[in-house]
Amino acid sequence: MALKLQPITLRQASAFITEKHRHHKPPRGWKFGVGVSNDEGELVGVATVGRPVARGNDDGFTLEVTRLCTDGSRNACSMLYSASWRAAKALGYTRVITYILASESGISLLASGYTETGYVKGRSWSCKSRPRTDKHPTVDKKMFCIGQCKDRPVKKSAPKQTPDEEELVLDLFD
After folding, report:
1. pLDDT at 41 (0 to 100)
2. How wide is the angle at C-alpha 147 spanned by C-alphas 166 and 23, nearest 5°?
3. Do residues 172 and 125 lie in contact, with contact meaning Cβ atoms separated by under 8 Å?
4. Kindly report the CA angle at 88 between 82 and 94, in degrees rounded to 5?
5. To which H or E segment does residue 174 belong?
6. 3.40.630.30, 1.10.10.10, 3.30.2350.10, 1.20.1050.10: which CATH number matches 4-169?
7. Weakly modelled stretches of the chain, pLDDT under 50
8. How many CB atoms lie within 10 A of CB 52?
9. Cα 156 from Cα 168, distance rounded (Å)
10. What pLDDT is stored for residue 153 in this prediction?
11. What is the pTM assigned to this prediction?
12. 167/161 Cα distance (integer angstroms)
């Protein structure tokens, strides 16, 4: 089965994400999105790209893949991550980041040229001054980046996964 990139609207992406995403609702906004379809022209995946959620990453040159959702079609994730970077670069952005659950492998990101650059400790966005109801997973996440990523130092160490392997933690709320 051959896959083909296609333009999509926020409404199309949101409908697809609402129907198929395992743990997130559609994003509220975006800079752009991209879809991928199969031989029959059926939409099998979407990526939404917007401003970084963490304000420390919102430097005007960084975008974030805020949602990536597919029906499981082979190579759709890699195709969408790659297309997101190419489009961002064409618009003058120098870096694209994204986060995945720590339990996910990230193989599609690695295949697309992204590198794992950090580990974010999971927690709630709720606080005394601004109570919120969490509607998203509050588990640990891995951060991936493509483009100009080396100037972003990882700040802390996470618990060791194996005796000789240590993951890195990026605390976005310092």
Report:
1. 95
2. 65
3. no
4. 105
5. none
6. 3.40.630.30
7. 153-174
8. 18
9. 6
10. 47
11. 0.81
12. 7
